[in-house]
């Protein structure tokens, strides 16, 4: 089964996933990456996301090779632009930045990426990418030259996600931005959740087990953790535990 079908299947069952985000730019020491990879494989992590708004190093393929050599988990490209295509990954979030009005990130980069992707075996996951305001200006907001959706404009976000679904996008990623001051609120997640039936990915500023649990309870199908693990990789143990507990409880209730 491909990743998207598996994600849809999990969504139907109410099963949650967790992705670890690796920013290749922040990998200066392969032994630190190695530690995180091992933690991920011991702690029921489902995916590695790899990418960044700005990649100044040439180590994308090396990072992916290192992950694939050491653990049998899917590696999904989370690209900031069409230069971040690496055929050795398993899939790519084919992001369209639908919260913004920058044509380059709605369709421009995609036109350049399409013929390159056609010649790879990467699974394409058409994804509506939505930035939600989180306090300070994030790298993605700055680089994309777009205004994030205000964090209290629930129906703006819900209608944006709804339009993404109607356009045929296959999942929605709500992002407060890497290292966000404030993670996306449960009320915002729940509003978008009610508006669509697609798998919903939530990321940005999730740096504690409580924040992870809140996102899951509000309707996230998948949570993405990056910055928190750059600061303290061991935080993965407690955060992934929340996802594990959720799925165990679900398995328990479905057996009754
Ligand atoms: C279609 C293809 C192949 C590319 C375009 C993809 C689009 C539309 C991207 C949207 C805009 C963008 C710059 C997204 C980047 C998302 C990302 C990988 C964020 C990770 O966090 P960083 O922004 O790197 O955070 P730090 O500042 O903490 O490094
Ligand atoms: O780095 P953090 O804050 O965990 O955010 C993850 C991801 O959603 C960023 O695009
Ligand atoms: Mg980055």
From TrEMBL:
Record InterPro entries: GGGP/HepGP_synthase_I, GGGP/HepGP_synthase_sf, GGGP_HepGP_synthase, GGGP_synth
Catalytic activity field: sn-glycerol 1-phosphate + (2E,6E,10E)-geranylgeranyl diphosphate = sn-3-O-(geranylgeranyl)glycerol 1-phosphate + diphosphate
The organism's place on the tree of life at top rank: Bacteria
GO cellular component, one term: cytoplasm
BP GO terms, sorted: glycerophospholipid biosynthetic process
Keyword Cell membrane: no
Pfam families: PcrB (PF01884)
Chain sites annotated for binding sn-glycerol 1-phosphate: 173-179, 204-205, 226-227
Alphabetic keyword roster: Lipid biosynthesis, Lipid metabolism, Magnesium, Metal-binding, Phospholipid biosynthesis, Phospholipid metabolism, Transferase
GO molecular function: heptaprenylglyceryl phosphate synthase activity; magnesium ion binding; phosphoglycerol geranylgeranyltransferase activity
Its EC number(s): 2.5.1.41
EC top class, as a word: transferase
SUPFAM superfamilies named in the record: FMN-linked oxidoreductases (SSF51395)
Coiled-coil regions, chain positions: none
Positions annotated to bind Mg(2+): 23, 53
Cofactor dependency: Mg(2+)
Function: Prenyltransferase that catalyzes the transfer of the geranylgeranyl moiety of geranylgeranyl diphosphate (GGPP) to the C3 hydroxyl of sn-glycerol-1-phosphate (G1P).
Record-stated family: Belongs to the GGGP/HepGP synthase family. Group II subfamily.
Classification via PANTHER family: HEPTAPRENYLGLYCERYL PHOSPHATE SYNTHASE (PTHR40029:SF2), PTHR40029
Protein name per the record: Geranylgeranylglyceryl phosphate synthase
């Amino acid at each position: 089964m491909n990743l998207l079908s598996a994600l849809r299947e999990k969504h139907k069952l109410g099963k949650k996933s967790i992705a670890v985000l690796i920013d290749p730019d922040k990998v200066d020491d392969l032994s630190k990456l190695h530690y995180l990879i091992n933690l991920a494989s011991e702690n029921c992590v489902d995916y590695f996301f790899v990418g960044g708004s700005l990649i100044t190093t040439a180590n994308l393929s090396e990072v992916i090779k290192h992950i694939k050599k050491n653990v049998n988990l899917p590696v999904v490209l989370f690209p900031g632009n069409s230069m971040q295509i690496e055929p050795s990954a398993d899939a790519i979030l084919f992001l369209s930045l639908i919260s913004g009005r920058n044509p380059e990130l709605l369709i421009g980069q995609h036109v350049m990426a399409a013929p390159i992707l056609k010649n790879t075996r990467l699974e394409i996951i058409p994804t509506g990418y939505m930035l939600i305001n989180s306090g300070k200006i994030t790298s993605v907001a700055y680089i994309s030259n777009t205004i994030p959706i205000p964090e209290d404009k629930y129906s703006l976000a819900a209608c944006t996600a709804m339009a993404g679904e109607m356009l045929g996008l296959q999942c929605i990623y709500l992002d407060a931005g890497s290292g966000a001051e404030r993670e996306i609120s449960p009320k915002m997640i729940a509003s978008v959740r009610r508006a669509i039936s697609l798998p919903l990915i939530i990321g940005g500023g999730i740096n504690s087990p409580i924040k992870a649990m809140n996102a899951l309870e509000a309707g996230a199908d998948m949570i993405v953790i990056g910055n928190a693990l750059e600061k303290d990789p061991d935080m993965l143990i407690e955060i992934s535990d929340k996802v594990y507990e959720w799925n165990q409880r679900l398995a328990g209730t479905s057996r009754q």
